Amino acid sequence: MLTLVTPEMATITFAKPFSPEESRRILDQLQQPLVFLNMTCDWPALSWTAQHLSDRLGDKRLRFRLGRKKDTHEPLFESQCSYVEATLAEFLCWTVGHTPTENGPFSNYPQSDYWAYADYKYIAMLFQDQPSMFEDVKWSDFGFEGRGGRESTLWIGTEGANTPCHLDSYGCNLVLQVQGRKRWHLFPPEDTAYLYPTRIPYEESSVFSQVNVLHPDLTRLPDFSHARVHIVTLQPGQVLFVPRHWWHYVESVDPITVSVNSWIELDCDDRARVSEAVTRTLVCAIKAAPSDDNTDVWLNPTEKEVLSHDENMQYVNLAVRAWTERQICHKEPVHNSKADSPPKRDSRGQTRTNKKPNPATFSIPYGPCLIPVRCQHEGETRIIPEEDGSLRDFLVTSQEPCTGTTSTSESKHEHRPVLNQSKSHDSTDRTLEDNKGAGHPTITTNDLLDCLLHPDVISCVTDLLLQRNCK
User: Fold this and answer.
1) Which DSSP helix (H) or strand (E) runs through 157?
2) Domain 19-264, what fold?
3) Cα–Cα distances in angstroms (integers) from residue 1 to residues 11, 12, 14, 23, in the given order
4) For the range 385-388, what are the long-range contacts, defined as Cβ-Cβ under 8 Å and sequence gap of 24 or more?
5) Residue 135 has what DSSP assignment?
6) 280-283 contacts at long range (C-beta below 8 A, 24 or more positions apart)
7) What keyword terms does UniProt attach to this protein (predicted)?
8) What is the pLDDT of residues 207-246, one digit of tens each?
């Protein structure tokens, strides 16, 4: 129970729908996106509007990512954006069409043509001189004791600000929406091949999609038509759970949005770290080599530097050693790619099993305070305001599992390609000058990397490497 005292000293008591233990059990049990309601009513972070944060940060400058407001079939990767350093006060002036000086940080970027995003801002660094701010975020309400603002990131953007579609290599995400609304397009791990994964640009914790999910080019990327999208528009005060390896594209839909994100490891990711170490070693070795078609900006701005081959191999050895020690400790068998493949799930996202259900099995308590983000047909999971100004959830979707153009999840895999060989990168990478008119498409460095670093291939390499190390 939560007790609040008003200025008039009247006591109002609220009961949160789930205890920390119940919330954690829900997150551990289910591998489908969920929206929690009425869990953050006492969080001071709900007052973190852009103006409030501007007042707290003062003259501290943040790095803003800017992109053009235009519709194209290509995703806008972070390596293709512009960047400026500015205070939140300068940012807020720019959002309403004002610039403090002619030479201000946003002076070359008309607000009518650009969106801006202060993303990935670590709260621990922003407010290192104001540690009381860390207590404003209370992930302990979701069963993560001791976790708060110090372990979270801040995201502040304008309408249209977005992150390209990607999946996170490790862990899951809990996202609190504070100001404005954000629309999330999510895709299950089983649809990875339909998202045309790529590691260029390279970021250790992310695998990017070559698809612009809002304006896909189905002529060039036809398998995306089989992907199953789950859409939700997140409102202030609501918390979204994004399970491990779910693809997501996120876009701000209001003039100013503020959200708080916490990345969480629910289980050990030693094997994933081996895969990532292998990937980074291959990317750096190949992209750092001089070549006529290695002229693109391949390192994501979130990555600070290109590591040497020796440094990358040290990471490979450390990751394999950590995995081996854990296997010895727990006496667990070597994983393989089939065992690591996502399990089949029902329409509620729960694991399908041939065993008879146990009456004592935990049942996910869906209801007005726990909303599943379902697969979309023609509708959308959205929040509709009532006449009295309150918010209520409506699921404008079919309640049956969505399977795209096929009738079952098993049959849809018939369309899945083993490897993606589409040409998705910049035209300078697709065709070498010396081979024009040769009559055959040129295989570029990025084409080769897309195949070498495909998740299925990296999974097989990781299996072989771990099996070899165990002998």
Assistant:
1) strand 153-158
2) Jelly Rolls (2.60.120)
3) 12, 10, 6, 15
4) none
5) G
6) 280/202, 280/204, 280/307, 280/312, 280/315, 281/309, 281/312, 281/313, 281/315, 281/316, 282/449, 282/452, 282/453, 283/199, 283/200, 283/202, 283/449, 283/453
7) Cytoplasm
8) 999 999 999 999 999 999 999 999 999 999 999 999 999 9
The answer to whether residues 349 and 303 touch, using CB atoms and an 8 Å cutoff, is: no
CA dihedral 188, 194, 196, 197 (to 10 degrees): 30
pLDDT tens for 391-442 read 343 333 333 334 433 333 333 333 434 444 444 555 444 444 555 555 678 8
pLDDT in tens, 318-331: 999 999 988 887 66
How many whole angstroms separate alpha carbon 37 and alpha carbon 322?
A: 39
- Residue ranges, CATH 2.60.120.650, the chain: 19-264
Say if CB 193 and CB 450 are below 8 A apart.
Answer: no
Predicted confidence at residue 380, as pLDDT, reads: 42
